[in-house]
Amino acid sequence: MTQVHGNAAPNATTPGERTNLGRLIGAGLILVGLVLLALGAYLGPYTYATATPGKLTVETCTVDYKYRSSSSSTSSRKKTKTRYCYGTFTSNDGKVKDLNAELKSDALHVRGYVIEAIKTGDTTYKQDHGWVGAIATGCVWFFGALIALAIGIFGTVTGFFSAREPSQGLFRTCLVTVLVGVVGLIISLLVVFFS
Q: Which of 16-20, 32-36, 55-59, 132-136 has the lowest mean pLDDT?
């Protein structure tokens, strides 16, 4: 009786290789989480703190219509509309005045209407939602980062595909952290939307 010894299938991976891949994915998620944290700090409180507060006096408002496809078929296209108001921006201290300011608005306003605005760049203006809006924006990014960090730490420690069971304490901690991240993300998005 002859025994045939052959090689394993070429696409088969050993448990150790899968664990290493899981750890690599976990490390990548940790890096994504750190980037999200940095973006949250920059786009939220930092941008608001360094912006120039003021008012934009509306000269005119327009609506920009864009069509985008909602699926692969060309017959179903969705129309999106974006409102822009143009006018004169004057900072609260009177030092900055821009006669050609453009602001993405939530509504169409009549000529002479005054919008609370902030100047965030040389020619960039946003509606002023105050510190509540800035902190809520930062929290959206923070809670998104928390989700990525929790899953990344779990993956880095266990490798996702480990043959042995992860410690129940680590699993519960990561699960609770992800749940806190999801709830915090939803609440922060609601605050941003309604502020």
A: 16-20
Q: In this structure, is residue 157 part of a structural domain?
A: yes
Mind giving me the DSSP string for the chain? ------PPPTT---HHHHHHHHHHHHHHHHHHHHHHHHHHHIIIIIHHHHSEEEEEEEEEEEEEEEEEESSSSSS-EEEEEEEEEEEEEEETTSS-EEEEEEEEESS---TT-EEEEEE-SSS-EEE--HHHHHHHHHHHHHHHHHHHHHHHHHHHHH-SS-SSPPPHHHHHHHHHHHHHHHHHHHHHHHHHHH-
Q: Tell me, yes or no, whether 107 and 73 share the same domain.
A: yes
Q: What does pTM read for this prediction?
A: 0.73
Q: Are residues 181 and 138 in the same domain?
A: yes
Among 74, 94, 119, the domain boundary falls at 119
In tens, the pLDDT along 14-26 reads 656 767 888 899 9
**Domain extent at residue 58:** 52-119
